[in-house]
Amino acid sequence: MADSDSFTPQQLRFERLLDAPVDAVWPWLIDEKLRARWFMGGPTEPRVGGKLGMTFDHANLSDGDVPTPEKYAKNVGKSWHETITRIEPPHLLVFTWDNGDAGEVTIELTPQGDRTRLVLTHTGLRGTDDARNFGGGWGAHLAVLQTRIAGGKVADFWALHRLAEAKAAAALQQ
């Protein structure tokens, strides 16, 4: 199975095959320290109605010393939480984005032999700008997750982000 992405102004869908079994991937979603290595960490209450903490500290995402682009510098250190709306360990995590104003994110994990098929769907987007922004973010973050789980190094998160953002923008222009 190849990676698969689809973009509309209202919904994003990413499919990835990860080089680890589901039980090894699940902690990367729930454990705040592991989540901080590919996305954003923060205190987690793994239950329906629980908080999923987010801290924007993307300097942790590159293994090299990579500066944060000026466009995102204002977000460094910003912390907030989202709400878990559904959780079925170790297969399903669903949470709000921007208290639901920017939709809901569903992450599904399915065994695929000794690997894991991850499907991330972000629904309820407010239009093309949201889709382009979140499309770039999710594309880059999932690339980091794939690399980390495979035991690799991430030289430059922001280079991955630029590529994912361009891919999302091109897909949304079609």
Describe the structure.
This protein is of the alpha+beta class. The protein has a single domain, classed as Alpha-D-Glucose-1,6-Bisphosphate, Chain A, domain 4. 32% of the residues lie in helices and 29% in strands. The chain is built from five helices and seven strands; from the N terminus they run ββααβαββββαα. It has helices spanning 22-30, 32-35, 70-73, 128-149, 157-173, and strands at residues 4-7, 11-18, 51-55, 79-88, 92-96, 104-112, 115-123. Strands 1-2-7-6-5-4-3 form a seven-stranded antiparallel β-sheet. Helix 4 packs across helix 5 (157-173). The radius of gyration is 15 Å and the shape is globular. The two termini are 24 Å apart. The model has no long low-confidence stretch (mean pLDDT 96).
